[in-house]
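Feature request, filed as a ticket because there's no other form

It would be nice if the structure record came with a short human-readable summary line next to the tokens. Right now we just get the raw output. Example of a typical job, pasted below so the devs can see what we mean:
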Amino acid sequence: MNGHEFTPARQKAPDTQPALSGGPPQPPPKPPKLTARGLLEPGEPGKRILVPDYIEVRELAGLLGLKPFKVVAEMMEWRIFKHADDLVDFSLAARIGNEHGFAVERLF
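Raw output as currently delivered:
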């Protein structure tokens, strides 16, 4: 051996994990799906809206945080044909609100 050769130092081999414990950690389990009753808990003030006897589709959509065309499209699926400027009664507004997880209360 002359003075110009280089021999790297031996490195320790990395410890390996068993096949079952390898990889990234698993995400936590998903919570159970909420039923309609679970969405309407009294402690959720953000999920409650007050609606008069008659309300414009556009205004209802705003209360629900939706675009008016989404509410119109949903009513069309139910074979109810309304425009965004049309009025709907409380029972229809409550049905739409309930479909989106809101507790709809009549405004007196």
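Something like this underneath would help us a lot:
Residues 44-106 form one domain.
The CA atoms of residues 5 and 11 lie 19 Å apart.
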